[in-house]
Design brief:
The protein is α/β, with parallel strands linked by helices. The chain contains 17 helices and 16 strands. It binds flavin-adenine dinucleotide (FAD). Flavin-adenine dinucleotide binds next to helix 1 and strand 11.
């Protein structure tokens, strides 16, 4: 039977769209099938609470999108994407009423960290300066020939360190320790784990180099810009097309799955060699999350003045408290004071809420698949650092770990990372080697966050998967670091 197109991509998350664009840019005909009625997967926005309040359904804050070597090659501004930089990217309040802050400028940040300023400056200055080279190195499979071995080597040793050890070696005071611990907690790993520091270093360096921006109008603007560019390249998107079986997919030379490994194992079950299928099935999940979006009558009355100027705020108190909370999650327990991340987009983007009113995006880590409503605990954390917060609430929209899975099959059990990001699953994601996107089935590739470089809105999993497919099946070579140059 003749092919209906050159390539099919299953799923319109940032990685599916990135893969589809990479293929379409080389002149191939590409069809993208999306299960939902809206495109974007983990980068969508909707009026979840009250009319006029635009909430980010999943991703909200985008250091990795703004710093993505692939997105940089795309004309996304032409398709409506505009980054908004909050005055302070990140604040981490403490019980004494102060807040440690990551500012765009390394020196400004260091100057506010007292006796730890010097260490912070020495840690972050080279990473922020080398962001362009480093981001291309670590936003791809770990096993590759580095183009910048010295820079990568220095980063690698620190990145491998458990956060509790790195912060103890580098810092003397609570502010710097808590600030770095909060960023490291994005890993969903206990802070005593190897590579937990990598997340703090990458996201921290990105904060200095490109900021922690939000897209004007909501995260949907990222997906819409990608989708509209894809359509301009001749690509087709079909919504409400959930793929359950390989036979349902239009005939093409390559098919890329922006699905998790567990979904691919189910969809291609009878065709996959047993060993590979078992590898996918045994891939371990990260913990889940519980998410709440709020419509608020006024800005949040933070005790620490600097929190009122920050886009993202980490609520977890001291490093010991953040470490305890993450250890509890790893044991399958819900901590009394869960580490909570909030973003207050409407302070910096007036399109998000009616004049004078505001949105708040919040989530906390919970054990995988947890159904318990922990909104009381999340609100207690916010109230602790912003007394009077509850009086501002006009409406809430809650999503438990299991609700998240219903909204997007990639979020099984509330795992938003496509699988745990411990050292083993970063090295073999889901298999060892420089091309883990390839499956044993000819023409079938994985391109979701279950592949390197894992979660986040950056499109790099999609780029590298499409690059592998182009090389294997179409004999076209793309560079490891995305560029606008012609394909060989
Ligand atoms: C609540 C939450 C907050 C987050 N916050 C941030 C943040 O602030 N910054 C950040 O960078 N990242 C954040 N993330 C992570 C980020 O959203 C994901 O890492 C990213 O979206 C992964 O992209 P992806 O393309 O691999 O998968 P997804 O974005 O999950 O997209 C997968 C798409 O495939 C579709 N699909 C799945 N199965 C099928 C099927 N069988 N048939 C057809 N279609 C299918 C889904 O409907 C979905 O549209 C957050 C995630 C969540 C859930």
């Amino acid at each position: 039977m003749a092919n209906e197109c050159d390539a099919v991509v299953i799923g319109s998350g940032p990685n599916g769209l990135a893969a589809a664009i990479t293929l379409a840019r080389t002149g191939l005909s590409v069809v993208l099938l999306e299960a939902n009625s809206t495109i974007g997967g983990g980068a969508r926005s909707a009026e979840l609470t009250l009319p006029g309040f635009v909430h980010d359904v999943c991703s909200a804050v985008h250091p990795l999108a703004a710093g993505s070597p692939f997105f940089k090659t795309l004309p996304l501004e032409k398709f409506g994407l505009e980054w908004v930089q909050p005055e302070i990217p990140l604040a981490h309040p403490l019980d004494d009423g102060n807040a440690a802050c990551l500012q765009r400028d390394v020196d400004l940040t260091a100057d506010s960290l007292g006796r730890d300023g010097r260490s912070y400056r020495r840690l972050m200055t080279p990473l922020a300066r080398d962001w362009g080279n480093l981001s291309a190195e670590f936003l791809q499979p770990i096993l590759h020939w580095p183009r910048h071995p010295l820079a990568l080597g220095k980063f690698g040793i620190r990145a491998l360190c458990p956060t509790t050890l790195l912060t103890k070696l580098l810092f003397k005071e609570e502010s710097a320790r808590a600030l770095v611990a909060g960023i490291a907690a994005h890993s969903f790993l206990p802070l005593e784990s190897l590579v937990s520091s990598a997340f703090a270093l990458v996201l921290g360096a990105a904060g200095h180099a490109v900021g922690w921006p939000i897209p004007r109008g909501g995260s949907q603007s990222i997906s819409n810009a990608l989708a509209n560019y894809f359509r301009e390249l001749g690509g087709k998107i079909e919504i409400n097309r959930r793929v359950e079986n390989l036979n349902e997919i239009p005939k093409a030379r390559v098919t890329l799955f922006d699905t998790t490994v567990w979904q691919l194992a189910r969809i291609a079950a009878d065709r996959l060699p047993t060993r590979y299928r078992e590898r996918l099935e045994n891939f371990r999940h990260a913990p889940g999350i519980f998410k709440i979006d709020y419509a608020l009558s006024s800005p949040i009355p933070w005790k620490a003045e600097r929190c009122r100027r920050a886009g993202t705020i980490h609520l977890g108190g001291t490093i010991d408290e953040v470490a305890n909370a993450e250890r509890a999650i790893a044991r399958g327990e819900i901590p009394e004071r869960p580490f909570t991340l909030v973003a207050q987009q409407s302070l910096f983007d007036e399109t998000r809420a009616p004049r004078g009113q505001h949105t708040l995006w919040a989530y906390a880590h919970v054990p995988l698949g947890d159904k318990i409503d922990i909104s009381d605990k999340i609100e207690a954390q916010i109230e602790r650092f912003a007394p009077g917060f509850r009086d501002c609430i006009l409406a809430r929209h809650k999503l438990s770990a299991t609700d998240l899975e219903k909204s997007n099959p990639n979020l099984a059990g509330g795992d938003i990372s496509g699988g745990a990001t411990d050292v083993w699953q970063l090295l073999a994601r889901p298999t060892f080697g420089a091309t883990p996107y390839r499956t044993p089935l000819r023409g079938i590739y994985l391109c979701s966050s279950s592949t390197p470089p894992a979660g986040g809105v950056h499109g790099m999993c999609g780029y590298h998967a499409a690059r592998a497919a182009l090389r294997d099946v179409f004999g076209k070579q793309l560079p490891a670091v995305p560029s606008n140059e012609a394909v060989d």
